[in-house]
Prior knowledge:
The chain is mainly α. The chain has helices at residues 2-18, 24-39, 45-76, 80-90, 94-108, 114-131, 136-150, 158-166, 170-203, 208-224, 232-243, 251-263, 279-295, 300-315, 319-328, 330-352, 355-365, 375-389, 392-408, 414-421, 425-428, 435-444, 448-472. Helix 6 packs parallel to helix 22. It is globular, with a radius of gyration of 24 Å. It starts with a helix and ends with a helix. The model is unreliable at 215-264 (pLDDT under 50).
Amino acid sequence: MLTILGFAMIATFLVLIMLKKMSPIAALVLIPALFCVFVGKGAKLGDYVIDGVTSLAPTAAMLMFAIVYFGVMIDVGLFDPVVRGILKFAKADPMRIVVGTAILAAIVSLDGDGSTTFMITVSAMYPLYKRLKMSLVVMTGVAAMANGVMNTLPWGGPTARAATALKLDASDIFVPMIPALAVGLLGVFVLSYVLGKRERKRLGVLTLSDVLVEEKVEETETVLVGAGSGASGSGASATDKVTGGSGSGTDAEDEDEAGDAERFQVLDPNRATLRPKLYWFNALLTLTLLTAMIMEWLPIPVLFLIGAALALTVNFPHIPDQKARLAAHADNVLNVSGMVFAAAVFTGVLQGTGMVDHMARWMVDVIPDGMGPHMALVTGILSLPLTYFMSNDGFYFGVLPVLAEAGAAHGVTPLEMARASLVGQPLHMSSPLVPAVYVLVGMAKVEFGDHTRFVVKWAALTCLIILGAGILFGII
């Protein structure tokens, strides 16, 4: 009964948010509360919620101060060179912008933290997508998949959990998986190229000059609309120029491209918060912070708390300026931390009522005996839905040991099982139980349901590419 109710609760949540019948925060709170009553444990709802909040409180604290930290770094201009570099590569070509999104997300994912990756990636790419009217779910989908592949790094979480659960060395799990994961990451880049080509076909091939002209026309229309002064004629000519694609390809315009790049700013180059004299201090502080995260010198929430305090104090020594920066990022902080605490209700009820345990045992029991010698393949396939519908802790500490025991009875080594268990991570990073995904969709101003509808099929394909490569290379 708990198995059915567990799957029904998750399905109800996904359907309601994908159909936009409820907001994610409301659904994360009300649906598990209702199912908790159905299970007959409504009296213990408070305990389950407190347990869930307690377990996710460090994550919420980390996100709060990480948003403040990276928000300040964006304000003071730390990432302006990154944005300019991406712009120089992408220009105004939608295909290059989508590929650039995947590359940037993969590189930033080296720090092992999904929330950090999404904050930096969205901060750099969101203005480009908005300026060119590109699909924002393409940005969130590509970033989530690239981060999902890179999330398998030993310090990223899943590999360490698998090693701990099966009493293995993390390097023995990860190093042999590198070729398969490299193929998976290549698959993300190819997919981003295909999605970018689709965006290019929809929008046309633009140049920076085209976009600048269109923006000037839009500004003119905005100013003159009350006077009824026929600005639409200019708008038509600008539209013709944009849809004409490569029509503006003269040598003179090519020579002006560099100058247009300087004027086509996604971040205001004259904003009052810039601190060019402190650039190297901020770069060193950020590098030190990321190094400390990787080396685990202190818990991540503590690192970001200290980092945010230092960043605010050094860059904005006057208290009114500090208050202004905190107020500027309060919206993101409230949205993301609120979503995390709401997710705590969902996970608390899932685990407290025993739904997760019953769902795991049911999944193991339905595996036919004849599949015993192929348990690594089975584990790889099961990692897709299981890491999507439950937390990494639930899967790696609750399900993987049971699967590994079943595999061992048929001669499948724990190492093979551990490697196979990493396959589902590209899909896992878009799970409604992953706090980082709310940072991604929140900062990108994308509905969670829209992101889910778009990304699930592509993320599942990426997972299957990794699984196929692992089998082909004899890793799994």
